[in-house]
Known about the structure:
The structure holds two protein chains of two kinds.
Chain A: E1 3-5, E2 10-14, E3 19-21, E4 24-26, E5 33-39, E6 46-52, E7 59-61, E8 64-69, E9 74-79, E10 88-95, E11 103-105, E12 109-114
Parallel strand pairs in A: 2-12
Antiparallel strand pairs in A: 1-4, 3-9, 5-6, 5-10, 7-8, 8-9, 10-11, 10-12
Chain B: E1 4-6, E2 10-13, E3 19-25, E4 31-38, E5 42-49, E6 56-57, E7 64-70, E8 73-78, E9 87-94, E10 103-104, E11 108-112
Parallel strand pairs in B: 2-11
Antiparallel strand pairs in B: 1-3, 3-8, 4-5, 4-9, 5-6, 7-8, 9-10, 9-11
Amino acid sequence: xxxxxxxxxxxxxxxxxDVTLDCVYETRDxxxxxxxxxxxxxxxxxxxxxxNSFDEQNEISGRYSWNFQKSTSSFxxxxxxxQVVDSAVYFCAxxxxxxxxKVTFGxxxxxxxxx
Amino acid sequence: DVKVTQSSRYLVKRTGEKVFLECVQDMDHENxxxxxxxxxxxxxxxxxxxxxxxxxxxxxxxxxxxxREKKERFSLILESASTNQTSxxxxxxxxxxxxxxxYFGPGTRLTVT
Lengths: 115, 113
């Protein structure tokens, strides 16, 4: 069975600080996909990024970056120079290949960016 | 613009009532999902469907059923609502390809009194 752990329940940072959200996953499969989603206060989850298990390159998109390390089964998300608009709940998720496969979500990390 | 819509944002029902939550997507996605979201528990999968008339149990299917008669519509049914089913319900869709990201609806906050 798959498992995704987001140990940080809530994080508060002051605007412009950098913050890293942790995600640790468990699976016995060698092929899998990892995702990050953002849920702003309005409630609708929005897709941020996907990573497949064969691609360990880190990715940067503007102020967002992701560090995928298979050796530690982690897929961490860093926001640089945080802004108030980054305040949201962030979810990490894992899915195995096959359209019949379900998606396993972590419990989420609530990020509050204080102006 | 891709869209997943849910029939209601807020719903209040009485214990024992039969409740229907409707979800419609316009992206021709094969997969559709129903989750419930509760504080501290994250998103828990209730049911999902990978094709018309196909359904798979998720992690917490007890007390729920689903219906998918058309590709674009996925309904969640609470046969006899109970207070412990008070929650936020989220619908999502994705391509059959498991690399595909999920697109979520705005959610329905259901209160059972």
